[in-house]
């Protein structure tokens, strides 16, 4: 994957540079639920601040900033489905 593609998938939230779970899963060529399951099963291997979920307000603000089209929606419907790494 090209560096510019990866850089475009990095956002700043809560003063931290983050990637969304589905973008990270795409990088590793696995399904999002597989990535999240692997992290949950091995959570002790990660620092406590490795992953968090957006609040509803953060999620709505983020969606409005990236301009998600109605036809695609990037698979985003609810904020509780999006993990942040």
Q: Secondary-structure element order, as H and E?
A: HEEHHEHE
User: Which outline best applies?
Assistant: globular
Mean pLDDT: 79
**Uncertain spans:** 69-73
Please tell me the total number of domains: 1
Class computed from helices, strands and strand pairing:
alpha+beta
Task: Please tell me how large the radius of gyration is.
Answer: 13 Å
Q: Say how many strands there are.
A: 4
What portion of residues is helical?
Answer: 25-40%
Largest sheet: 2 strands, antiparallel
Strand content: 5-15%
Strand order of the largest sheet: 1-2
Supply the number of helical segments. Answer: 4
Cα(first) to Cα(last) distance is 18 Å
Topology diagram in text:
Elements: H1 3-7, E1 11-13, E2 16-18, H2 21-27, H3 32-41, E3 52-53, H4 56-66, E4 83-84
Question: What does this 3D model show about the protein?
Answer:
The protein is of the alpha+beta class. The chain has one domain. 39% of the residues lie in helices and 12% in strands. It is built from four helices and four strands, in the order αββααβαβ. The strands form two sheets. Strands 1-2 form a two-stranded antiparallel ribbon. A hairpin with a 2-residue loop joins strand 1 and strand 2. The longest helix is centred in the C-terminal third of the chain and has 11 residues, at 56-66. Residues 69-73 have low confidence and may be disordered.
